[in-house]
Amino acid sequence: MTSLGGRWSRTTIVLMLLAVIGLAVGWSTKAPCATTYRTPDGQIALDWRDWRQYSDACYSDIIPLYGLERLQDGDLPYKSSWVDGGDGRTRYMEYPVVTGMLQYVAMRVTKTIVGTEDSTQPRRPEVLTYFNVMVVILAVSWLIAVACTIPLSARKRDVALMALSPLVAVHAFTNFDTLAVALAAGGMLAWARQRPVAAGVLFGLGAAAKLYPVFILGALLVLCLRTARMQPWWKAFGGAVAAWTAVNLPFALLYPHGWWEFFRLNSTRPADHDSIYNAIQVFTGWQGFDGPIFQGDSPRILNLVTLGLFALVCVVVGVIGLTAPHRPRVASLAFLIVAGFLLTNKVWSPQYSLWLVPLAVLAIPRWIPLLIWMSVDAYLWYPRMGYFLGLGSPGRGNSPETFLRVVVLRDVLVLALCALVVWTIYVPRHDPVRKTGADDPAGGPLDGAPTERPRWLRPRPRDLASNEPLVGAPPPA
Predict the structure, then answer these.
(1) DSSP secondary structure letters along 34-56
(2) Could you give the CA distance from residue 107 to residue 74 in angstroms, rounded to a whole number?
(3) Which of 15, 96, 372, 392 has its CA 20 to 30 A from that of 162?
């Protein structure tokens, strides 16, 4: 069996071992930022001297956020706050609840480990223990995501693209996103095994970690509408709402300002470095939709534009899903929605590309196109680090234009993958999955459903010409 329960096949074991190798490479790319040096007074300090985190391209949000988010103080996120030295605003944990509590749990484990160390000897910085604890959690999350994706693939060997993805080598430990990827993959597996409530719960928890897992419910909605099988979707939707509410409501009631911080920050963020909007501004000198804005102000027009463009993406994907001659697969529509969100959003943090990896492997199991995209997307990290190195140490690194050219190339490649997905939807004989004789391994209640358009979407027969007599009508006089 290639499942989480029961005995694994040889293929599954090999793929999991490949995933371990991929994670080991990911650790090696961050390891230079987890080294120390002796200070003149004999203390052991984190070696980020001379902007090493950028020059060695080993930067990880996990390390600075331990101090910036005040985790080192041992306080409960969302309850504790601090004053930002830049604008004097009271700040709180900036991540959604599940990701915030992940950091809290890792911090408590860290302090337990540190408490057992010999206090008479110079100690390594506590943040390094925290980093190692978090690496273990994130690595296990990615392994779970791989294990959940294997049964969803018609050709199991294609999951090697996920296990050994260049994006894993660069971004598995850049931030906390592998947890959300695991929850999304688990939700898709639960749906495939006809457990819609469990699927919804996992999607809801995923949305409370990073927003994107809930988008998969949108793909399922389109397909359930097309097949007139809405009951499983309503169960999944109910499970998602219940799970998201269960983890968010206590914090929203007890610590409303801390809970709201994630939403406030996302509304006030300008176009991020990796966004297409920033690339256009740099290459053209355009001032953006809102023009120059002050720190803390919301780019209201940009927010509306990105929301409107993503809504348009959802409408287009819905039309594709409902009108295609043959029913699309779940992964195909999910990939289009998530990719559309990233392309139109004002923020595309580098590690967000991990969201696409399992969906791409399921939607487009074509090695050459996927390896080209993954390689370019992973390479983007290096001119990005060079750009930040130049900001911190003028005269070093590379120009923003060098970095943003790769951003544009990455976006073009993702658009090309979207076009390839649409092509396989409308011409299913070119879909590698359908070529195997499978319908939709991730379809669950939809697998084996009628592939033709629903009756209410079929074109009506042409009306008979006025000079043709109707059946049963008397002949003309």
Answers:
(1) G-EEE-TTS-EEE--GGGHHHHT
(2) 7
(3) 96
Q: Among the residues of 172-229, which ranges form H helices?
A: 177-192, 196-207, 215-227
Q: What is the rounded distance in angstroms from the CA atom of residue 102 to the CA atom of residue 29?
A: 23
d(CA 96, CA 105): 14
Classify residue 457: in a domain, yes or no: no
Q: Is residue 70 part of a domain?
A: yes
- Tens of pLDDT along 214-231? 999 999 999 999 999 999
Total domains in the fold of the chain: 1
Instruction: Classify each residue of 329-342 as buried b or exposed e, where b means 16 or more C-beta atoms within 10 Å of its C-beta.
Output: bbbbbbbbbbbbbb
Please check whether residue 99 is in contact with residue 179, taking contact to mean a CB–CB distance below 8 angstroms. Answer: yes
Distance CA 374, CA 354 (A): 10
For 136-147, give one letter per residue: b (16+ CB within 10 A) or e: ebbbebbbbbbb
| Cα–Cα nearest to 453, from 426, 430, 435, 433 | 426
pTM score, two decimals? 0.92
Q: Note the pLDDT tens digit of each residue in 452-470.
A: 776 666 655 544 344 444 3
Tokens 């799970």 found at: 243
36, 182 Cβ separation under 8 angstroms: no
Domain that holds residue 22: 10-451
**8 A C-beta contact, residue 113 and residue 154:** no
DSSP state of 115: H
Residues found in the chain: 477
Distinct helix (H) and strand (E) counts, the chain: 20, 4
Q: How far apart are CA 420 and CA 314, in angstroms?
A: 18
Cα–Cα distance measured from residue 42 to residue 1, given in angstroms and rounded to the nearest whole number? 55
Taking only the tens place, the pLDDT of each residue in 392-411 is 889 899 999 999 999 999 99
Q: Is residue 1 part of a domain?
A: no
Confirm whether 361 is domain-assigned.
yes
How many angstroms separate the CA atoms of 423 and 18, rounded?
Answer: 31
Mean pLDDT of 350-375: 97
Please list, in sequence order, all residues whose beta carbon lies within 8 angstroms of the beta carbon of residue 263, skipping any fewer than 6 positions away: none
φ/ψ region of 228 (left if φ > 0, alpha if ψ in -120 to 50, else beta) reads: left
